[in-house]
UniProtKB/TrEMBL annotation:
This is glycine--tRNA ligase. It comes from the Eukaryota. Belongs to the class-II aminoacyl-tRNA synthetase family. PROSITE patterns: AA_TRNA_LIGASE_II. PANTHER family: GLYCINE--TRNA LIGASE, GLYCYL-TRNA SYNTHETASE/DNA POLYMERASE SUBUNIT GAMMA-2. The lineage of its organism: Eukaryota, Sar, Alveolata, Dinophyceae, Suessiales.
Length: 634
């Protein structure tokens, strides 16, 4: 059965286009899939969501915000793994090679359809759910096998499909007039944060933990952009990297959120074919379902942010990645999924990525990104040190490069040295690439006799480690789309109303509404007066001073029609200037959802609007403070 969002989809799509929330990019030229332009209300809505995100995370969590470049040189994205691994599998219709499908999404759709079949046995439900949930985690061989098993075909033509082939999602862009410097449009904003971790750490007086955020565009050459704003080729991300000591992921402020109830869909529940459960984040961390307090804290804060901007809590869940879905280096990952007309949609990914990214960039850029923690008391530690004979054996074995290779081994961090020794002992040799001169590397084969070490006790006043990272990654456009869906409803016909029509309403909370108030003259006779101009100016400039945008609707349509038009773009308050206003400078203020009205002096409107938008007062309180609009008023 279609969910409520699916049933409203056509109406909402029409509204968004007609009122220019967004339209296809370059539409007058026919447009290209995957690119969208936000029109005035959509752009204002997006700006308000981003501003609230900044307040909720950057200000309240005291993060540092940076702005890195959209174009990044090849070595950065090579080191991050995007050049080699940022691919999706694509399949083509055998009879029409211009018809592409993204293999994992097609597989998800097929499983989704199967799950809708009537009278399915529990085993089948479990099987299809599992395949759907791990669709994007299959290897090329696995997905090919699965396509064969379920005989998946091109949805439109029913034709067979080609074998899945990897397709890199990055947009290459040669840099400079020679075009010889290879680069890419960034596929995520996160990499810019890792590149600048070292400089941000300095700004934080070399202390951990701390967080860095970035809001900006990301670019992915999606194989099959579809489903409007939710899968674009250019979209906005807001990402946080929270750098933390890997052994200290407990967080004092976790206590403040530990009793937050959250709908959690753990990997165990998914694998057992069960539904999500609602528990507190405190319980989830305590039981080990969520790996650590830092991760749990950001999950709870994400939930609070999403509901504060209008996502309905009963349509929000956190789904844990299945073990097969998770990157090998990650400790734990949860997606905040919001139910929309397209089903449960991943809108935020929250991952504990351990030290992978910093290690990768440290190695590739040959920059030391290790954190050195000063100890209060020096400690005596057992360390491995190369024996003299082993050093001599190494110098002999690596001839010209012997000294450099020996120094390289001596400088290795203890864990890496231990790993090297273990490998050489187990396999009889271990191969490593060593930089022996500027821009010159050598493949060195280490034998066990090159690596004989003794254990020494040494006093240490610092410990060294690469910080781990917890990464909440928000897709702003998907969030905006979900908020649109969760805010939309159709107001039933009101028989007393002169138009007797159903009316679309966007029930945006005032904090994100594109415009906060609309000012309406009762009719053109009022509009033509100097007093109207004076009152309108007073309220508009007062609201502007508080940072709130107002619109003016002085068309000749009836007041009822104008209210409906403004409800449709989600303006929470409408202020009407009528004949009485011309005499006593009072106006009526109408609240969109209840359609109730109060009467107050025009000079007090801006201050009340500000309090309502900042949630310092409620409409109920405003009604208690000011009289209801008396009969006879419009
Ligand atoms: N093509 C896109 N269009 C709009 N938003 C996107 C797109 N790809 C990713 N996002 C958003 O960015 C967030 C973080 O990106 P991430 O790399 O984790 O996504 P992803 O797992 O690759 O998404 P998907 O599996 O849906 O392609 C996502 O949760 C999503 O909200």
């Amino acid at each position: 059965m279609a969910n409520i969002f699916e049933r409203n989809r056509a109406e909402l799509e029409d509204l968004c286009k007609r009122r220019f929330f967004f339209r296809q990019g370059s539409e007058i030229y026919g447009g290209v899939s995957g690119f969208y332009t936000y029109g005035p209300p959509g752009c204002a809505l997006k700006t308000n969501i981003i501003n609230l995100w900044r307040r909720h995370f950057i200000i309240e969590e005291r993060l540092m915000e940076i702005e890195d470049t959209n174009i990044m040189p090849h070595p950065v994205l090579k080191a991050s793994g995007h050049v080699d691994r940022f691919s999706d599998f694509l399949v083509r219709d055998v009879s029409d090679d211009k018809k592409f499908y993204r293999a994992d999404k097609l597989l998800e759709d097929v499983m989704e359809d199967k799950l809708k079949e009537k009278g399915l046995a529990a085993e089948k439900v479990k099987e299809y759910t599992l395949v759907r949930n791990q669709a994007d985690a299959y290897s090329q061989e696995e997905i090919s096998e699965i396509f064969r098993k379920y005989d998946i075909r091109a949805p439109e033509s029913g034709n067979k499909l080609t074998e899945p082939e990897p397709f890199n999602l990055m947009f290459p862009t040669p840099i400079g007039p020679s075009g010889l410097i290879p680069g890419y449009l960034r596929p995520e904003t996160a990499q810019g944060i890792f590149l600048n971790y070292k400089f941000c750490l300095e700004q934080n007086q070399n202390r951990l933990p701390f967080g860095v955020a970035q809001v900006g565009k990301s670019f992915r050459n999606e194989i099959a952009p579809r489903q409007g704003l939710t899968r674009q080729r250019e979209f906005t991300q807001a990402e946080i990297e929270w750098f933390v000591k890997p052994t200290a992921k407990q967080l004092k402020k976790f206590e403040a959120v530990s009793s937050e109830q959250m709908m959690l869909f753990s990997s165990d529940l998914q694998l057992a074919g069960k539904s999500a459960e609602t528990i507190t984040i405190g319980e989830a961390v305590k039981s080990g379902m969520v790996n650590n307090e830092t991760l749990g804290y950001f999950m709870a804060r994400t939930g609070l942010f999403l509901t504060s901007i209008g996502v309905k809590p009963e349509h929000l869940r956190f789904r844990q990645h299945l073990p097969t879905e998770m990157a090998h280096y990650a400790c734990d990952c949860w997606d905040a999924e919001i139910e929309t007309c397209y089903g449960w949609l991943e809108c935020v990914g929250i991952a504990d990525r351990s030290c992978f990214d910093l290690n990768a960039h440290a190695k590739a850029a040959k920059v030391d990104l290790a954190f050195r923690e000063k100890l209060d008391q020096p400690i005596e530690m057992e360390v491995l040190r190369l024996k003299k004979d082993a050093g001599v054996a190494m110098m002999k074995a690596f001839k010209k490069s012997g000294r450099v290779v020996k120094e390289w081994v001596e400088k290795l961090p203890q864990e890496e040295l231990k790993a090297l020794i273990d490998e050489a002992t187990k396999d009889g040799k271990a191969v490593r690439t060593v930089e022996v001169a500027d821009d010159q590397t050598e493949e060195c084969t280490f034998l066990p006799e090159h690596l004989v070490c003794e254990t020494k006790k040494e006093k240490q006043s610092t410990v060294q480690f690469t910080p781990g990272v917890v990464e909440p990654s928000f897709g702003i456009d998907r969030i905006l789309f979900s908020v649109l869906e969760h805010s939309f409803y159709v107001r039933p016909k009101d028989e007393s109303d002169e138009e007797k029509q159903q009316k679309n309403v966007l029930r945006f909370s005032p904090n994100i509404a594109p415009y906060k108030m609309t000012i309406l003259p009762q009719d053109q006779r009022v509009q033509r007066t100097d007093k109207y101009a004076e009152l309108m100016q007073l309220m508009q400039s007062g609201a502007a001073l508080c940072g709130h945008t107002c619109t003016v609707d002085d068309s000749s349509a009836t007041l009822g029609k104008r209210y409906a038009r403004n409800d449709e773009v989600g303006i929470p308050f409408a202020c009407t200037v009528d004949f009485t206003s011309l005499e006593d400078s009072t106006v009526t203020l109408r609240e969109r959802d209840s359609t109730e009205q109060i009467r107050l002096p025009a000079a007090e409107v801006a201050a009340l609007l500000d309090q309502l938008c900042l949630r310092r007062t409620t409409w109920k309180d405003a009604q208690a403070r000011y009289p209801a609009r008396s009969a006879g008023y419009p």
